[in-house]
Write a structure and sequence with these properties.
Order of helices and strands: HHHHHHHHEEEEHEHEEHHEHEEE
InterPro entries: MeTrfase_RsmB-F_NOP2_cat (IPR049560), MeTrfase_RsmB-F_NOP2_dom (IPR001678), NusB_RsmB_TIM44 (IPR006027), RCMT (IPR023267)
Mean pLDDT: 95
CATH topology of the largest domain: Rossmann fold
Number of strands: 11
Radius of gyration: 23 Å
Protein name: RsmB/NOP family class I SAM-dependent RNA methyltransferase
Number of helices: 13
CATH architecture of the largest domain: 3-Layer(aba) Sandwich
GO molecular function: methyltransferase activity
Bound molecules: S-adenosylmethionine
Largest sheet: 8 strands, mixed
CATH superfamily of the largest domain: Vaccinia Virus protein VP39
Keywords: Methyltransferase, RNA-binding, S-adenosyl-L-methionine, Transferase
Oligomer: single chain
Pfam family, one: NusB
Strand content: 5-15%
Amino acid sequence: MPRPSEDQNPGVPARAAALRMLDAVLRRDETLDQAARHSTKGLSPSDAGLALAIAGEVLRRLPLLDLTIDRAMRLPLAEDAKARMVLRMALAQRIGLDTPPHAILATALPLVEGGPRRLVHGVLSNLFKRDLPQGAALPETVAKRWEDTWGGAEVKAAEKLLAHRPPLDLSFAGVVPDDFPGTSLLPGHRRLEDAGDVTALPGFAEGGWWVQDIAASLPARLVPSDAARVLDACAAPGGKTMQLAAAGHQVTALDRNRSRLGRLRDNLERTGLQAEVVEGMLEDHRAEPYDAVLIDAPCSSSGTYRRHPEVLYRARPRVIADMADVQARLLDAAVPLVRDGGSLVYATCSLEPEEGELQVRSFLKRHSEFMLRPVPTIGDFGPSGDGWWRILPTALKNVGGCDGFFACHLVKRG
Ligand SMILES: C[S@@+](CC[C@H](N)C(=O)[O-])C[C@H]1O[C@@H](n2cnc3c(N)ncnc32)[C@H](O)[C@@H]1O
């Protein structure tokens, strides 16, 4: 995409970067993080942060923004028109970031220089005089899928959570200091609203804690405390490896992705925790059977919609089906790596039954040597279905919610 003349207003480069990011996410299927890496090159950290925030606000509200735009147009605007994206960004800044109308206009119009400038100016001037819809909305296909699977209350809860940036959850390696800010919802956990710069929080340099959504902290809690050797089979960037190491297990952290393993090593170094780090595929991993294997499997990530709203556009049925195939292969590959009587913990940050309930039921049909051990109730999280944790959007809804998640504990008969 050509870069507009960005010297007109100091706020334009951040908006131009947001435009490039949205194009990369919605047309080239990139994640926001991937898109941010190449779209924000050369920007100051604060401009890069602003570009990311604008793109995120658009993705949280896209269906409502389009409805508002379509109602304000006399002639329909093409779905992929640049003017539509500029209008979406302008409305998202007004609604989600409270940017003043004059600042929005001054930075939006240069993006359509030599194009439909008058149209964009007219539509925005008109819309800024009206009440704009404040909420967020799931794409229609996702809302329908989740309503069919989980019911309308879960869709409503998801849309409510999506409208706000989520609180920050921290997991602690040891006892949480009494004077540490925030609210504790589980042992070893603190939740902070508007945490700001995490590196400025007490204990960052000492590595006593790391950022981890509370739902993502559940699977490692299923590994029995007496499991000596534990394989974290899809380990990077290491949230669960750190939990397991902090709980005293002897952990092998395996992952196929070298750069993500680099982040895992950095995390271990910062927290001073120990694990054997192995780069490789679970399918090729050969070792003495472990007391427990944790598979935090790659998935559609649809449960992370609050922090990564682009998953709502990327987690299409084809992607879900492909990831379910990968997960089945990983589960099968783990079977010989679990000792008799040992544990296999399976988890995904997905709200799709194909990556959770259905996956496990079909594994149990293929492997009669395994059985489900019901998960316990800890804090507000209790077992559902056949005895797993199915974490839905209504979970913790009065205290800021959490990621959608699935986790279960399988035991190999001894
Ligand atoms: C959901 S992420 C894991 C997150 C991690 N457990 C944590 O808590 O930070 C899934 C990981 O699986 C890894 N992965 C995917 N296929 C794999 C395979 N066949 N063998 C090993 N790792 C794999 C990916 O590289 C990715 O890092």
